[in-house]
Design a protein that fits this description.
The structure is a single chain. By secondary structure, the protein is mainly alpha-helical. The protein has 18 helices and eleven strands. The protein starts with a helix and ends in a 20-residue tail after the last strand.
Length: 427
């Protein structure tokens, strides 16, 4: 055992001291992948040790008040990190599939943290078999989802493994979360003393969606070139939001209108299926991607125009939009509901920051409807048009299920296997 540990330490030291600057690109990428792969497997070994230390209650013999405090002192880590190790160690011990995936490097440490959190938030009264199925499903999704996409999928995991109990559990969770968030809402302006005022606070999902709808048209990152030309320095995202907040308040005080965003006046949208709108409303999804309870959907519906966007069973949009060059009004909202954000693989830009891209150019008689449109952020919109004109770039098409998919250029993938944005469409 001691000899193996010494070999492990020696090999790790060699890798850490290795000069990578002379490596050609292919060798550098292989080094990156291999070291990361090994790092994840070592994480599994660490969690096995943490769990065994907890089982033996070693901290008691060291007079530590808790395993968390003992780990903090032993490994010189923060209490938060120590707590995460304990939770993850328990998840790995409880779920064999998750343990095997981590041990073989198929699940990385960040993904494990997300999966452990998702499993920990499941109701305590849930049938053990459902919990096991949830762990196995999330572990399988880790092969093609980053931590952000996996977190979104984890929030709705019961819809996939136990839809018969998901609705009732989700309703109770959302009601409790909305009640707590509303009670904890606050905004504070604190003078720092050097000409700066610190703005801080907490909003619930609905309030945050309203604020975001007002701010986004004024802070969309499409004026970077103009800012660079005028001042030589582009604003950061935080600076754009700060300026937008002040501008919104200035417009309200002056009685002026807010600018358009994606062809529509600033507003929030809630997505629910068509039949429940006419009968019993279920939970909804704000255009920010955050879920809201049925009660909130009903309340928002009292002061909203109901847009008849027809959905089929899997949620595919069957009918919406009008014949025009720009995607505005009902068509823009239908596009937002379908794509949820930039459709380019791996992009997390929200729908409010996206353009409606014509798959077949409008100038070439391409229609303005859902079958010929996909949301793209400014960056990827420029890439698609530039590479299309070069004749060796990404191609977009609408798949059989009605969602956009991308064919990578041959230089990136000779097989041109279709890819999708797993961040906005995690499953």
């Amino acid at each position: 055992m001691q000899e193996t540990m010494q070999q492990l330490t020696d090999l790790t030291a060699q890798c850490a001291a290795w000069r990578v600057s002379p490596l050609p690109d292919a060798d550098l990428l292989e080094f990156l992948d291999t070291v990361h792969h090994a790092q994840q497997m070592l994480q599994a070994a660490l969690l096995h040790a943490v769990h065994e230390v907890r089982l033996r209650d070693i901290r008691a013999g060291r007079h530590a008040p808790s395993i968390k405090i003992w780990l903090r002192d032993r490994l010189r880590i923060s209490p938060r990190t120590a707590h995460q190790l304990i939770v993850q160690a328990a998840s790995v011990d409880r779920h064999g599939d998750l343990d095997a995936a981590l041990t073989t490097g198929k699940v990385n440490a960040e993904q494990l943290a997300v999966i452990s959190t998702a499993l920990a938030t499941l109701p305590k009264t849930l049938d053990p078999s459902i919990r096991t199925d949830s762990a196995a499903t999330l572990t399988g999704w880790a092969a093609h989802l980053d931590p952000g996409g996996l977190r979104k999928a984890g929030q709705r995991i019961l819809d996939h493994v136990a839809p018969e109990v998901a609705d009732a559990i989700e309703q109770r969770r959302l009601r409790a979360a909305e009640r707590d968030a509303h009670q904890q809402r606050h905004v504070t302006l604190t003078a720092v003393g050097d000409g700066r005022i610190r703005l801080s606070g907490i909003l619930d999902n609905e309030a945050a969606a309203i604020v975001t709808a007002a701010l986004d048209p004024l802070c969309k990152p499409d004026t970077v070139a103009a800012e660079l030309a005028a001042t030589g320095q582009a604003r950061t995202p935080g600076q754009r939001r700060a300026d937008a907040l002040v501008e919104v308040c200035r417009l309200v005080l002056a009685g002026g209108p807010l600018p358009d965003n994606g062809g529509d006046r600033p507003q929030i949208a809630v997505t629910v299926s068509y039949d429940p709108l006419r009968a019993a409303l279920g939970t909804g999804i704000l255009d920010s991607g955050e879920p809201v309870s049925a009660e909130t959907v009903r309340r928002l519906g009292c002061d909203a125009r109901i847009l008849p966007i027809i959905l089929n069973g899997p949620g595919q949009i069957l009918d919406a939009g009008r014949t025009r060059r720009t995607a505005t009004g009902p068509l823009r909202r239908a596009l937002t509901i379908r794509d949820k954000g930039c459709t380019f693989p791996g992009c997390d830009r929200p729908a409010r920051w996206c353009d409606a891209h014509h798959l077949m150019n409008w100038a070439d008689n391409g229609p303005t409807n859902l079958d010929n449109l996909a949301l793209l952020c400014g960056h990827h919109h420029r890439i698609i048009h530039t590479e299309t004109s070069n004749g060796d770039g990404w191609e977009i098409r609408i798949a059989d299920d009605g969602l956009p998919e991308f064919l990578p250029p041959a230089w990136l993938d000779p097989t041109r296997r279709p890819r999708r944005n797993q961040y906005h469409q995690p499953t």
